[in-house]
Amino acid sequence: MKRLLWLSVLLVFGMGVLVGCKKATPAPTEAPKEQPTEAPQAKEIVLTIGFTESKTGRLNVSSGRQAKGLRLWIKHINEAGGIKLSDGTVVKFQEASYDDESSKDRVQELYTKLITEDNADFLISPYSSGLTAAAAVIAEQYEKVMITTGAASDSIYKQGYMYVFQIYTPASRYLTGAIDMLKETDPNLKKVAFVYEQAKFSTAVVEAAKAYAEEQGYEVVLFEGYPSDTTDFGPFINKIVESGAEAVLGGGHFQDGSTFARQLYEKQAPVKAVVLLVAPPEPDFAELGEAAFGIIGPSQWEPQVQYTPDGAKELGIDWYGPSNEEFIKAYEAEYNEEPSYHSAGGYAAGIILEYAIKKADSVDPQKVKEALEATDVLTFFGRIKFDTSEEAHGLQIGHEMVYIQWQKDDQGNLVKQVVWPKEGATAELIYPLPR
Amino acid sequence: MKRSLWTLILPVLVVLAVGLYPLLTQQDVHRETSFTLLRAVALAASLNIILGFTGYVSFGHVVFYGLGGYVAFYLVAQKGWPFWSAVLMGGLAAALLAFLIGAGILRLRGAYFALVTIGVNEAMKAFIYNFQPFGGPVGLTMNFAVYRAYGGPRAVLWMTYHWLFIVTLIVVVVSYWIRASKFGLGLLSIREDEDAAEVMGVRTSWFKTWAFTLSAFFPGLVGAIFFFRNASIEPHDAFPLHVSIESIVMVMLGGQGTVIGPILGGIGYQWMRVFLLTNRLLKNIQLAVAGALLLIIVLFIPAGLVGWLRRRLPATRRVLL
Q1: Of B139, B292, B300, which is closest to A16 when you measure between CB atoms?
Q2: Contact criterion met (CB < 8 Å) for B299 and A19
Q3: Same domain assignment for residues A61 and A181
Q4: Distance (Å, rounded) from C-alpha A307 to C-alpha B139?
Q5: pTM for the structure as a whole
Q6: Is A104 within 8 Å of B237 when comparing Cβ atoms?
């Protein structure tokens, strides 16, 4: 009997392993597609892009989209024949990646492995600022260039790191555009309230936004954090009403942000504008129905944004990479889903690396680093330019947030419209909220 | 039965083997692998003092890890303390917390104690979220200048490795000392029957409090070392409940209440996780395979590896403790 039990357990386990092998083989992370081959006229080299992806754990959705964007770029650049350097060398790419389980525990171990065993030539950051901070120490140890995407916190770039380059608009500028927008739309608006999730990212965002709002002459009548798992926003909404706030800014992540928006609507809080982090740009936000109408949210990128070669010309900088439509079409064809800003960020990280290698006309890390420092370019994702001062080396200073608002189309369906900055707007801001 | 000296030599040898390997090869990747292994061993062996020897299941082991990490990080990054003194303070802060709360919560037994330790974890997390000197929800970040003072990131990664190696060795020796001492005997009697121990003259509350304090000191040191080399700390990373649970699993796998058990459990468990995570074939289903393996082990050797060996091979009883 006991032997039978053993046997059956072993069998089940063996089957599991077999199924796993079968599943794992076609995965895009497996053996390099392109082997370094000597073409008669051109030398071809294959660079390894190393990164970790949160395949499991709380960050897996956003991190997965980021990795999808990056993989799409690797596919595109290889299909396009790689990067051709002036000495005739053709540079192609392959990936090396591991699951970091959304936890800091093994990030440093995995990045060391990527560099020393998988011989990664360039690194892309994990998703989230915390994991990126841990990976940055390793990148610095080996003096490897690491492009960070999905890591908005400012603090990482203010610690004196020299090889870390940020693609996202930093947290400190997430809501400042919204304050500019409100100021231009309604110069009489004076009282604002900040109600935000007590988490690293959202706290960093609102602290910077509060300072900016005060600088702009606003009166911050309420500044209050709520725990991440809050489901009843009643007490906070009462405080907002009591404080006489005319605009509410804050939120944190999807769950709390959408609940907050719904309860603001249910209680008919008499505010003129509501700006929330993270939740509004997600397509699922529309499920709130009427409560979603008029809500504004900052986003790193939206399918509707229009950055064009003409725009680059106006700014007097280079244009590089595919157009927005080309990216969206290719992404949808590859993955059968709409790209989010995480996907676009992953793709943009690849594009920027490609641009820097081209500019450097070399794959030498030091030369690529110098090219990144000199980068000022417009892509489908927006403008990319890095701070090169010693205090904030690698911090993103070119990219701007866009602000979306849920509005209604002719049929009365909820649609996302870009309302700020004005150059890229697809619709007028609806203001004040019709309540 | 006279206890052989091998009961001390064997565990120390295992830790030496894991710890010295990267020092001999001087390979960074070996250093990182051994760092994870030693960290697991130190956490499991220190948890074993309260869980294995005393019989109190604590889900709050990570509180001491996080608190030690925070205190040391704050002292190094914000106050400019030397690393060694900050690490020591991290350990002492964790031990002090355990001493203070231990007197209260160690009166509870079984499931009630386990539940309260989860509560302590959540309470500490909530406190840190609202404690501004520690950065509140944003946490703290290390300035690179601090690393430069120690010779740059490479030197820091090696230095923290040496520290962890030494701490792990100390945990193992202390663990052996407890198990072999009269103090340890008192703890074992509490584990078997607390009321009977009390009647026999064991000062149970005093014994338990010191066991809890000692078991908290070491994760405090480990947390301090870990977060220093991570260059940032935030509440979410500092108090992950899963680290507590994994520590319990490692102790159980190796054999609770033994000296060498948590060491083998820690190494075995972490080695398996790293292997599955980085194996080309299995990395996409690593969690499922890990779960299946754990299930099989728990089903067939519930007493842990050391318990199983001692039962199956009586000759090993003299050398495995």
Answers
A1: B292
A2: no
A3: no
A4: 36
A5: 0.83
A6: yes
